[in-house]
Amino acid sequence: MKLLKLICLCCALALVGATVGTYLDASATEEKPLSDASVNLKEMPLLKGETWQAMTSGEKIAFIWGIGHVVTMEREVEGKRPELKKAGLASKMAEGLAGMPMTEIVSMIDKYYTDNPGSLSDPVMKVLWDKIVKPRIKAGFYDEIKE
Predict the structure, then answer these.
(1) What's the CA gap between 46 and 116, in Å, rounded?
(2) Is the whole model's pTM more than 0.70, yes or no?
(3) Distance, CA of 36 to CA of 58 (rounded, Å)
(4) 34 pLDDT tier (thresholds 50, 70, 90)
(5) Most buried of the four, 5, 67, 78, 126, by CB within 10 Å?
């Protein structure tokens, strides 16, 4: 279990660090990094709507692709170690995103932030879960834990 958590944590950290792109400063035309990658973080910052809207299409696809890799890695570990299998986040993400092109996922997230400009502080993962994954899964997260 510790190995799985460590793998997932490392993948999540690598995913977020690798996919955080650049944004266009409103007062200048040059691109600058969203954050200093050399800074020691106490925790990984959440990707939110403000940053999502400033990302290029390629950066958005890379983020969704990275999520897919984390899910795939967890399922691979579960396949080799069945005692780790559970109705957890990765299995529900896999179920809810099955058969969806990455461009469609990106478009749905873009549409959410466009339609809800007051929700730009919502984390992208929350939007992905609430608006895309949750409506497409048969049973809830951890067998119907209510919010």
Answers:
(1) 18
(2) no
(3) 21
(4) low
(5) 67
